[in-house]
Q: What sequence folds into this?
């Protein structure tokens, strides 16, 4: 399918301009990756500030009229850069985040986490994709379009680069309320998601929400000898594991009653690709019922993410008096965090075995699931831009099984804005894990698509 001509600069001029700026934005990305802006680590607070300052300098150098480093009370530094819209043109808000997760176990990395390294067409490093590539994709589009004509942009642009996304955006709602006038826009482009696969662009239209709890099960006031009391007195680890097992049916589907489930798109996700993308061991079966994308995008998922009990190295023949686990519940679109929490707690209370004492501590963060109605002229322009950047490949609408709860915050703060959730990632990006990497050829297409989007708007 051929692309419709856009009303701004000619397509080939935009393409040429993007190609010209890619080497410089690659250098800018590498400079950002070298800053270990780990928002979860208080010892890295100066690095997070340095990352914000470097981001602000990049957009200041592109002629933005108003560049600020701001933070809500108790929050991490964010960057807001603004340039006004030409008469009669839209204003577009471009979102990304400059904070990153810790690198984790260094031995699992094949390269230095904070030294960007190219290998086999990917740029490896913590934040090379999630989400410093989102920052420089915005930068590339702006830098390319400024090279054309008289140096002005075809739309108003506000860049908002958050500094605490990787710790759950705890002050984002306060930030949006405090700086609403600065951030108001007709279109919001959130560059923090993924494409369907290498060579196939995507718009994210559904997102699961997330809640978590810590459960503690106690059966004894203190540990007792397993030989003297085992077989009569239940230990806490036994009780906890039975409780955790109750969360799923034998087929692996979620057994918690009262959670929302819904249909997904008709995209096919072949099992062999699932196994490759997820690194599932050959002998392990897939779990759940329904299509693969339903299980990933529009059904709930329960995961036991941690267990506290006696370490094997410290074990003795003792019945454990208490044990704890952290449970994460992903919520399907159409559900709510409050409803999901109530259903999960009720299930745990019903299924705790043998009268064991149960304590449920709710997590501090709750992310709402989201649905984006991706119809209308703005989305038509976006799909056309993707189609052109990917050489005629039709973009697909996808869901995301992970949670991006701040999108609901944007929808609530700016209900009349069209929200586009795009991204630079692909199934092998390994964001949040060791060897995070950016596919450089896909990144070039992302940059072109965003420039075409701004040009078309």
A:
């Amino acid at each position: 399918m051929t692309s419709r001509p856009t009303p701004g600069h000619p397509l080939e001029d935009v393409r040429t301009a993007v190609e010209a700026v890619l080497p410089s934005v690659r250098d800018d990305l590498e400079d950002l990756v070298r800053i270990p802006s780990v928002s979860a680590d208080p010892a890295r607070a100066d690095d997070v500030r340095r990352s914000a300052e470097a981001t602000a300098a990049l957009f200041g150098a592109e002629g933005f009229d108003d560049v600020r480093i701001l933070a809500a009370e108790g929050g991490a530094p964010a960057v807001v850069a603004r340039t006004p819209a030409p008469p009669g043109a839209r204003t577009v808000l471009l979102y990304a985040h400059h904070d990153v997760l810790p690198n984790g176990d260094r031995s699992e990395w094949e390269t230095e986490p904070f030294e960007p390294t190219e290998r086999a067409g990917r740029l490896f490093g913590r934040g090379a994709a999630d989400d410093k590539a989102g920052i420089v994709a915005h930068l590339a589009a702006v830098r390319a379009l400024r090279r054309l004509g008289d140096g002005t942009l075809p739309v108003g642009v506000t860049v908002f680069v958050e500094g605490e996304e990787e710790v759950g955006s705890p002050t984002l709602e306060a930030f949006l309320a405090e700086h609403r006038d600065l951030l108001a826009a007709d279109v919001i482009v959130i560059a923090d998601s993924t494409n369907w696969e290498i060579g196939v662009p995507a718009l994210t239209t559904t997102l699961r929400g997330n809640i978590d709890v810590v459960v503690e099960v106690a059966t004894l006031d203190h540990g007792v000898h397993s030989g003297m009391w085992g077989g009569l007195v239940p230990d806490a680890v036994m009780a906890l594991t039975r409780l955790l097992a109750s969360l799923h049916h034998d087929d692996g589907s979620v057994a918690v009653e009262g959670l929302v489930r819904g249909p997904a798109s008709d995209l096919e996700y072949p099992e062999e690709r699932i196994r490759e993308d997820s690194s599932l061991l050959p002998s392990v079966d897939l779990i759940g019922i329904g299509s693969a994308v339903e299980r990933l995008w529009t059904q709930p998922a329960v995961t036991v993410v941690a267990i506290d009990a006696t370490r094997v190295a410290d074990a003795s023949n003792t019945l454990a008096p208490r044990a704890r686990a952290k449970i994460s519940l992903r919520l399907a679109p159409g559900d709510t965090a409050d409803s999901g929490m109530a259903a999960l707690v009720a299930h745990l209370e019903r299924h705790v075995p043998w009268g064991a004492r149960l304590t449920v501590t709710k997590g501090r963060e709750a992310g709402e699931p989201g649905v984006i109605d991706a119809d209308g002229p703005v989305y038509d322009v976006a799909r056309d831009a993707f189609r052109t950047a990917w050489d005629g490949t039709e973009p697909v609408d996808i869901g995301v099984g992970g949670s991006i709860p701040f999108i609901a915050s944007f929808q609530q703060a700016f209900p009349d804005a069209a929200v586009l959730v795009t991204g630079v990632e692909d199934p092998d990006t390994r964001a949040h894990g060791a060897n995070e990497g950016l596919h450089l050829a896909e990144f070039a297409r992302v940059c072109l698509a965003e420039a075409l989007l701004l040009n078309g708007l």
Observations:
- Residues 11-33 form the longest helix (23 residues).
- DSSP finds 13 helices and 18 strands in the chain.
